[in-house]
Amino acid sequence: MYTARGKIEQADLLDEYLPLVRRQALSMQVRLPASIELDDLIQAGTVGLLEAMGRFDATQGASFATFASQRIRGAMLDELRSRDWLPRSVRRNARAVDEGVRRLEQRLGRAADELEIAAELDMDLEEYRQLLSDTNSGHLLPFESLMAEGVEPGIEDASVDTPFRNLIDQEKRQQLIDGIEALPEREKLLMGLYYQEELNLKEIGAVLGVTESRVCQLHSQAVSRLRGRLADKED
């Protein structure tokens, strides 16, 4: 049972970290279908924050800010996974794009352009771009998806830091950085604006001089390139 003082401190902590919930929700929303409401993400993130407040153990070494950030994002991802909103056909198409880009760029030894990728997939340019638009929502948080594959056996809670997890995180993060550096310039700029500067689709479109839907297509294409290169590293 909380004392009156404990309730006040908890309320203060909640007020302090609610802006973090909103920032993470906004960052995540820009790469999701329009059917995913910002309020739903914020609600899930708030639940994650409350869980963090109840479960945080200062003796484990991590700061509360780090612990809370992980729990907030994890709760949002759990909410999205529970909806299973991406059709199987779209998942299949996303894998087909990834494999096509990977195969083509291995053969060419360089980044392929859209026309080359479309030809590899036996499509015209408009069909390929529509496929990118359809599969963009399947590329949720690619780095976190990779991290999920590196979880130490027996550790299910993504908020738990272990030496194994930290090592995997560092290795994969460097691979991801290297992959981004190898992207075509416009896609590299897009990824920097998106993941580092945290601009939304409209803002990125203004910088690149393209529409929001085109930003989605370019993001999807960049992620396909990165997945292919990271898969090469695993082989």
TrEMBL record:
DNA-binding region, residue intervals: 201-220
One Gene Ontology cellular component: cytoplasm
Location within or outside the cell: Cytoplasm
Domain RNA polymerase sigma-70: 40-53, 200-226
Transmembrane segments: none
Entry GO MF terms: DNA binding; DNA-directed RNA polymerase activity; sigma factor activity
Residues covered by region (Sigma-70 factor domain-2): 13-85
GO biological process, one term: DNA-templated transcription initiation
First-listed, main subcellular location of the protein, grouped into a coarse class: cytoplasm
Transcription among keywords: yes
Keywords: Cytoplasm, DNA-binding, Sigma factor, Transcription, Transcription regulation
Pfam family, one: Sigma70_r3
PROSITE patterns to which the protein is assigned, alphabetical: SIGMA70_1, SIGMA70_2
Motif (Interaction with polymerase core subunit RpoC): 40-43
Gene3D superfamilies attached to this UniProt entry: 1.10.1740.10, 1.20.140.160
Sequence segments annotated as region (Sigma-70 factor domain-4): 179-227
Keyword Plastid: no
Function as written in the Swiss-Prot or TrEMBL entry: Sigma factors are initiation factors that promote the attachment of RNA polymerase to specific initiation sites and are then released. This sigma factor controls the expression of flagella-related genes.
Family: Belongs to the sigma-70 factor family. FliA subfamily.
Protein name according to UniProt: RNA polymerase sigma factor FliA
The species this protein was found in: Billgrantia kenyensis
